[in-house]
Design goal:
Length: 114
């Protein structure tokens, strides 16, 4: 998603439990110390949205979303993720897991070179 010359990522989830988790993630990322903010993908202030998606003859589906700034350059193809990058990615994920943070969608498209 582009806004002017700023590239943004939209994070969107469906379902009540996923919505609760996304709200928690938004608060956690937004509460990071200022000195860390330049090293992580940050959230756009006031971008958290919660609502319901109407469905015909069914209960509305809970929806939540927020916008994130993108830092770095996205990898466009798996071949761009060299062995060196791969090792750094695994090391970073290991560090996150040790802190109780788990990224469940570790695809190359979710990795940025900084």
């Amino acid at each position: 998603m582009l806004r002017g010359d700023q590239q943004l990522a939209l994070k969107l989830v469906l379902g009540e439990e996923c919505c609760r988790q996304l709200v928690h993630e938004f608060e956690m990322i937004g509460g990071l110390p200022a000195e860390v903010q330049s090293d992580v993908v940050g959230v756009e202030a006031n971008s958290l949205w919660r609502g319901a998606l109407p469905r015909e003859n069914q209960e509305p589906l809970p929806v939540a979303a927020f916008l994130m700034n993108i830092i770095g350059i996205p990898f466009l193809h798996p071949d761009e993720v060299t062995d060196e990058y791969g090792a750094l990615i695994l090391e970073s994920l290991s560090d996150l897991h040790a802190m109780g943070i788990c990224h469940t969608d570790a695809r190359y498209k979710n990795v940025y070179a900084c």
